Amino acid sequence: MSIKTKLLIFALCISLIPISIITTLYYFNARSTIERQTLDWLTAVAESKKVHTLSFLDSKKGRTIDFSSDGFIRDSLEAISSSETQSPVVNTLIRHLEVNKKPLDRHITAIAVLDINGNVVASTNKLWLGKDMSKATIFMSCVTKNYGETYIGKSYSVPYLNESCIFISAPLTSRQEHKTMGVIINAYDIAILDEITTKRAGMGESGEALLGMRKGDSVVFLTTLKYAPDMPLSKSVPLNSSGAKPMRLALKGEGGAIIALDYRNIDVVAAYQYIPEMDWGLVTKIDKKEVFAPITRLRIFTIILGCISAIVVIAIAIIVSKRVTKPIQKLVEGTKRIASGDLDFKIAAGSKDEIGYLAASFNDMTSQLGESKKQVEDYAQNLEQKVEDKTKEVKHMLVELTYKNKEMEQIIYVTSHDLRSPLLNIQGFSRELQQSFEQVLPVLNESGISPETREKLADALEEDIPDALKFILDSSSKMDTLLSGLLRISRMGRVVLAIKQLDMNKLISNIIGTYEYMIKEEKVKVQVGELPSCKGDNAQINQVFSNLLDNALKYLDSDREGIIRISGENKNGHIVYCLEDNGIGIVERQQTKVFEIFHRLNPAGNDVAGEGLGLTIIRKILDRHDGKIWIESEPGKGSKFFVSLPA
Fold first, then answer.
1. Closest by alpha carbon to 608, among 562, 546, 544, 550?
2. Which of 280, 347, 386, 427 would be 334's cystine partner, CB 3.0–4.6 Å?
């Protein structure tokens, strides 16, 4: 392939590919932005409709409560309930409901007053009079409520009303004894919900808001549909159909936004909300085609712009390639001569641009090539020997380091092991000497020693000798503790690891069980998340987390309730566990020192028992597991210990 062709292809690649990528990214970004903005907007609309619906229902409940507090209605029901002759009182009550109450709310279809037995004693609807509603939920769920409370029915039709209604009831109580005498029911035409859902401002041409309820295996729409103008409760869709997905999600108690099919089986962008008080679902939606209409126009524009850009780039590339390839051809011919071994050949530099500079560089190169070639050959002869010598040196250092490490462990083991024998003798004879002194002291006190002699011996017998014996015993005990610690650390390097996959949830649970008494005694809350498994030796990893939990329990803050949290996550092929406490914390200057052997924290007023080996042992165990440990801590707030182990 000629240079001219390559330049042409290169020019097309560096121009058309970025144009294509930028155009594609812009297109999908714009699509995503419009989709996100639409979903956010529809979600906001759905939330607004939900608030509006709840506010609307609250206002209707408030109206019902207002009616239940009407003194005339309450007195009339009390008179009806206590009198056998009811006709005049009933007629007066019905007229009061029709003239003074029903006109207060244009949405009310009918009002009914029920006695304590559930019989309709007065109503603005003649068909409702005398009906027995004692077994109706709207009565039974309300008659047990207190004054000022309401109940909204979940059934929206009764045989004696022609319209589908929302029924809201409230208890009626006597004014003197506040005893429940019956119930008042307001029936609101369900078509009033259309006043909320048909307001589609800002929702485009295809925007629509829907309210629905579950009825058996179907979704029944409570409002008039834009594209299926049936009356409320007349349109239903199978609950498991694809066209009911947004409403199905809403009726499950969820809230969100998706792209799915609607009841017309047309793709829409929809937001959905659940109204728990009514067990209703609310959906706001816009046709997907309308939402992405601007993207279609943008796609056509970008295609046209890309085609024009390609034509311009091709024309420029052809012109430039002709001017560039001619001097390059001369340069190629010269390089062939040089490649054939003619290092005395000089390429003519006819131009002062980069190609001319390149020709001059080639000429300089040929002058130095011979000398460089000789130097390379000489260096190549020596390089192999140098590499071999350096490799031997590194291997020797590694062997020596391994030997020194084992030698140091052996020295620590032998020293700590052999020193314990004379130390045990010191402790034993010191205790024996103390017992003998305690036996001799009473004898000396009872003997006939003169007062002058007893006074001279008093300091030695009562202070110097007991203090000296106590000092010897304390010091030997401390030395025994230190030697035991050294012996434990030296033995750790000799333990053969049994590496396997560990169930950390079970391991941590066993450790917590071991410390259960101390946890209950200190009233500490231990919170453990789901822990991923890791690779390690079961016994030694158990010791790591036992030591960490033991430290967390030791260094609690007495001023607040202790909380310990244990969590874990996978990071870059390693499992990182975190044991977090709200104890006294560690100052920054000591956060690296705590891993040193025999280093202990001794905060004021907190004499904590221990050898100062726990964290040293942890670090040694983790070194052998290809793991590590680090701390994040702040005094007065607590500490976080992070442990990293292979996954």
1. 550
2. 347
pLDDT at residue 38 is higher than 90: no
**Cα–Cα distance, 621 to 437 (Å, whole number):** 46
Beta strands per DSSP E along 63-164: 108-115, 120-123, 151-152
Per-state percent for the chain, helix, strand, coil, to nearest 5: 55, 20, 25
Residue 122 backbone dihedrals phi, psi, to 5 degrees: -155, 140
Q: CA-CA distance, 222 to 244, in Å (whole number)? A: 14
Q: Name the token pair of 125.
A: 């609807």
- Per the CB < 8 A criterion, the answer to whether 76 and 174 are in contact is no
Identify the helix (H) or strand (E) that includes residue 535.
strand 534-537
One-character DSSP codes across 300-366: HHHHHHHHHHHHHHHHHHHHHHHHHHHHHHHHHHHHHHHHTT-TT-------SSHHHHHHHHHHHHH
pLDDT in tens, 413-457: 556 556 656 666 676 767 777 777 677 667 666 666 677 776 766
Distance CA 527, CA 552 (A): 13
Residue 600: beta bridge partners? none
C-alpha atoms less than 13 angstroms from C-alpha of 273 in its C-beta half-sphere: 23
Give me 66's structure tokens: 């207002």
| Tens-digit pLDDT profile for residues 612-624 | 677 888 888 998 8
The reported pTM is 0.47
Helices 614-624 and 538-554 sit at what angle, rounded to 10 degrees?
Answer: 150
| Per-residue model confidence as pLDDT tens digits over 261-312 | 988 889 999 999 999 988 999 999 999 888 888 777 777 877 887 788 778 8
**Rounded Cα gap, residues 31 and 302, in angstroms:** 14
Q: Which three-class secondary structure state does DSSP give residue 629?
A: strand
Backbone phi, then psi, for 499, in 5-degree steps?
-75, 130
Angle of helix 71-82 relative to helix 3-68, nearest 10 degrees, comes to 60
